[in-house]
């Protein structure tokens, strides 16, 4: 049960550090002073990673209160950790690796923001990037709703259910994890949907996908810069 919270903590620290460094380095200008750093920072995929980690936490809590739950063995814990880390880190890495398919420029630099990714709106942009945040968010909501339903239905036996499903999980820790995942989802779901809508609105017109056309922008304007905090 620790793998989900660990993944969440790693993403929070990593993305906060990334945003802080970007804001400090490009606080007053848009000089391309660290191109390798920009290549790395635009490929982190932290927005999806955090939602994926919360999804794993919500899934774990739902499994604990499930009527099919049994005491977890060491092998069960290893399988769960493998699944959680694969979803929390592997999926975002794959998603951002696919960014090259619809990437309009190598990267962009915005004053006060730093390095950011660019994109052209097409079906790969929707399928390979934009839908995954809402998918993990909605999945986490369903797991959380199931957890709440089971707790309300079996509130008198709550402590016994938690203890029987996972010997290392106390009632207090279960409640803290539930509060963490549900509170983040209350914020993450509307934000992920808003982010998708904003991405679609600011990406300009929809393009029929063409690898040659999408890659041609790399030759004309590989680095995009803007004195504003949004892409032109």
TrEMBL record:
<keyword id="KW-0297">G-protein coupled receptor</keyword>
<keyword id="KW-0812">Transmembrane</keyword>
<keyword id="KW-0472">Membrane</keyword>
<keyword id="KW-0589">Pheromone response</keyword>
<comment type="similarity">
    <text>Belongs to the G-protein coupled receptor 4 family.</text>
</comment>
<dbReference type="Pfam" id="PF02076">
    <property type="entry name" value="STE3"/>
</dbReference>
<dbReference type="InterPro" id="IPR001499">
    <property type="entry name" value="GPCR_STE3"/>
</dbReference>
<dbReference type="GO" id="GO:0005886">
    <property type="term" value="C:plasma membrane"/>
</dbReference>
<keyword id="KW-1133">Transmembrane helix</keyword>
<feature type="transmembrane region" description="Helical">
    <location>
        <begin position="82"/>
        <end position="102"/>
    </location>
</feature>
<keyword id="KW-0807">Transducer</keyword>
<dbReference type="GO" id="GO:0004932">
    <property type="term" value="F:mating-type factor pheromone receptor activity"/>
</dbReference>
<protein>
    <submittedName>
        <fullName>Mating pheromone receptor a2</fullName>
    </submittedName>
</protein>
<dbReference type="GO" id="GO:0000750">
    <property type="term" value="P:pheromone-dependent signal transduction involved in conjugation with cellular fusion"/>
</dbReference>
<keyword id="KW-0675">Receptor</keyword>
<feature type="transmembrane region" description="Helical">
    <location>
        <begin position="173"/>
        <end position="197"/>
    </location>
</feature>
<feature type="transmembrane region" description="Helical">
    <location>
        <begin position="130"/>
        <end position="152"/>
    </location>
</feature>
């Amino acid at each position: 049960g620790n793998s989900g919270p660990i993944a969440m903590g790693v993403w929070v620290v990593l993305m906060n550090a990334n945003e802080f460094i970007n804001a400090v380095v490009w606080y007053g200008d848009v000089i391309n002073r660290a191109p390798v750093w920009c290549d790395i920072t635009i490929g982190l995929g932290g927005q999806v990673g955090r939602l994926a980690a919360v999804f794993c936490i919500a899934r774990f809590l739902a499994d604990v209160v499930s009527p099919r739950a049994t005491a977890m063995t060491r092998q069960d814990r290893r399988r769960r950790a493998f699944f959680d880390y694969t979803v929390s880190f592997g999926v975002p890495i794959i998603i951002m690796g696919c960014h090259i398919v619809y990437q309009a420029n190598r990267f962009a630099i915005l004053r006060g923001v730093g390095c950011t990714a660019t994109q052209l709106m097409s079906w790969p942009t929707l399928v390979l990037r934009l839908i995954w945040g809402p998918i993990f968010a909605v999945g986490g909501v369903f797991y959380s709703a199931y957890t709440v339903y089971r707790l309300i239905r079996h509130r008198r036996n709550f402590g016994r259910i938690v203890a029987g499903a996972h010997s290392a999980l106390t009632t207090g820790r279960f409640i803290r994890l539930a509060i963490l995942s549900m509170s983040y989802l209350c914020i993450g779901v509307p934000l992920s949907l808003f982010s998708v809508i904003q991405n679609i609105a600011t990406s300009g017109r929809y393009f029929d996908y063409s690898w040659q056309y999408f890659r041609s922008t790399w030759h004309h304007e590989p680095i995009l810069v803007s004195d504003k905090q949004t892409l032109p």
